[in-house]
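Example 3.2
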Amino acid sequence: MSVERDNKKHFHGHRERLRQRFAKNGASSLQDYELLELILFRILPRRDTKPVAKAMIERFGNFTEALSAPAHLLEEIDGLGKRAIIDLKVILAAAQRFSKEEIIDRPILSSWGELLNYCKKQMAYETKEQFRILFLDKRNYLIADEVQQIGTVDHTPVYPREVIKRSLELSATALILVHNHPSGDPTPSAADIQMTKEINNIAKPLGIIVHDHIIIGRSGHSSLRGLKLF
């Protein structure tokens, strides 16, 4: 019992000092592991969370990658059980939902920075390729954001006619195609370019505009429209 009380005292003061530093100076005053600590305080109230947070950063590299890491890898961190990992994923989902709301009810093309930020939060740290489509109306407002396919670490099957079929079902007049490269390198492949051209060739006669195909990687993004590849 006395050991437990001593252990509590050991990190109680540290927790309070970290909270006060955050309250006074904000998140920019904290290192990645310290921000993780603040989150873990509530999730692991009886544990010293500093070594847990440091282990996460050492294993995954930074705050975002630590929070986005697959559950089976987070389980390898000493101190993180299944319930704690679920709580971390709830926090990640909340952050992703928040970023999505930043692009709703405004023209997508006039908030390109927010769109890229949203896509990075949704996809940059996924371990499998995802192909998603942003369906837009004639004012370029978002109608729907749908993940059409989930593939392997380096390939996602995409069926251009299915993309157009879904566009017509939603009465979309414009599309933004997005997929991620789990390797981290957003350079478009020959298959990416060919698939984009095929979708564009089917969409154009139907009056559907393909604004762009964005590839998301940990190291940045590529715009096939910006690279003049279709």
